[in-house]
Amino acid sequence: MVTIVGVGPGSRKFMPLYALEKIQNAKVLVGGRRHLEEFKDVPCKKIVIDASLDFKELLQSDEEIVILASGDPLLYGIAETVLKYVDKEKVEIISGISSVQYMCAKIKISMRDLPVLSLHGREEDFIEKLRQHKKIALFTDDIRTPQYIAQKLKENGFKNVKIFVGENLSYDEEMIYEFELEELVRFNKKFELNVVVVACGNM
């Protein structure tokens, strides 16, 4: 049996009780280093997801495992990969609060008709989506950064936009920034783990 637990934006205080119970009772806990560090008090075997891990082999073992997933496992999350190797009947998915949900609550922007795209290791036509919907949420990576997004918007003629960057959401180091387009293009900072929301006009 494989249980995938969405740990939400990061801090355990935003997780439902049922998810916490699953983690506390786990025999094998699998996740990124940051997630495992959050649950270092759980007395069980821990496996870090990194380049050396044979994930397919792990999933096909007889061990009952609990996988810690960022945000919601079904929103650009690890659940899709797990379901390639494990029968649906043997998988339980516990949804978590996505970082986009958390961010929108912080900046008071409705998620109604909000496209959510991931630029993490991929290209997406977020320009056209923004033209259609007037707002968009984006997962980033070390190449497609908030500044990269701002530069692309500038190159495509956008002017009256607000760009919100949420960094280290839910952790003690959380920072939420609000930028004008040109301001972010010139902003000289390497953001840590972050999500971006772009809104056109007054929203």
Helices, strands, pairings?
Blueprint: E1 2-6, H1 17-24, E2 28-31, H2 33-38, E3 45-48, H3 55-59, E4 65-69, H4 79-85, E5 91-94, H5 99-107, E6 116-118, H6 126-133, E7 135-139, H7 146-155, E8 161-167, E9 175-180, H8 181-186, E10 194-200
Parallel strand pairs: 1-4, 1-5, 2-3, 2-4, 6-7
Antiparallel strand pairs: 7-10, 8-9, 8-10
Domain Tetrapyrrole methylase: 1-184
Protein name: Tetrapyrrole methylase domain-containing protein
Pathway: Cofactor biosynthesis; adenosylcobalamin biosynthesis
The general outline is elongated
Based on secondary structure, the structural category is alpha/beta
Question: How many beta-strand runs?
Answer: 10
Whole-number count of domains = 2
CATH topology type of the largest domain:
Methyltransferase, Cobalt-precorrin-4 Transmethylase, Domain 2
Terminal-residue CA separation: 45 Å
Q: What is the N-to-C order of secondary-structure elements (H for helix, E for strand)?
A: EHEHEHEHEHEHEHEEHE
Count of helix runs? 8
CATH architecture annotation of the largest domain: 2-Layer Sandwich
Largest sheet: 5 strands, parallel
Spans with pLDDT under 50 lasting ≥5 residues? none
Q: How large is the share of residues in beta strands?
A: 15-25%
Name of the CATH class of the largest domain: Alpha Beta
Strand order of the largest sheet: 3-2-4-1-5
CATH superfamily of the largest domain: Tetrapyrrole methylase, C-terminal domain
Question: In which range does the helix fraction lie?
Answer: 25-40%
User: Quick check: average pLDDT?
Assistant: 94
**Radius of gyration, in angstroms, nearest whole number:** 18 Å
